[in-house]
Amino acid sequence: LMRPLQGCRGRGVVVGTVTLCLAAGWALQTPGGVSLVVPQPNINATVAQNILLSVEYSCRGVATIEWKHVSSWGTTSIVEWRSGNYVNISTVYKDRVTAFENGSIQLRNVGMRDAGYYFVTVTEEHGTSAYGTIIVNVYEIIYEDLHFVAVLFAFLAAVSAILICFMWLCNKSLHLFQKKTTHKLTASTTEEIELETIEC
């Protein structure tokens, strides 16, 4: 009674192994899933610059691409589209984003609030997904800081020049005052000497 059951179990193991091998072979032969490449994972930009968040994806079927921005101000959905179909751009980014067929987006006129993490998700119609991240750093334009320093330096130089002129005028006035006082003292001393001489 036990032998037929063992025989069935042995056949089940063989059938299972063959099925598993066939499935693995089919999976290896069929190009499946989604692949996503992010050539530039870090981007440095200055205020008011246009930047390209570049990616390249490939998949067997129709894919849905979605971009999100995460920063200290929160998470914002930027754009979502289906290859060959609709493009849904968030109202916050309506006039600033262009989407490309390869999954990339261009962000125009960046500001300090655009710094942060940009997450892209590519989802195939069968449910397979691939993810990518790009870090964007946004800096103030350097020449504006230099302009401020130059204006401040010019202002301080002008104030210093005015103070120097004022001190020079004060010194000149004091010198003239001392001369007049010395002249008066000399004149009064001479008069006293003359009076003493007359009296004598």
From TrEMBL:
Keywords of the record: Glycoprotein, Membrane, Signal, Transmembrane, Transmembrane helix
A Pfam family: V-set
Record-annotated Immunoglobulin domain positions: 40-139
Subcellular location per the Swiss-Prot or TrEMBL entry: Membrane
Bilayer-spanning residue ranges: 12-29, 146-170
GO (cellular component) term, any one: dendrite
Gene Ontology biological process terms from the UniProt entry: filopodium assembly; positive regulation of excitatory synapse assembly
UniProt protein name: VSTM5 protein
Lineage top rank: taxon: Eukaryota
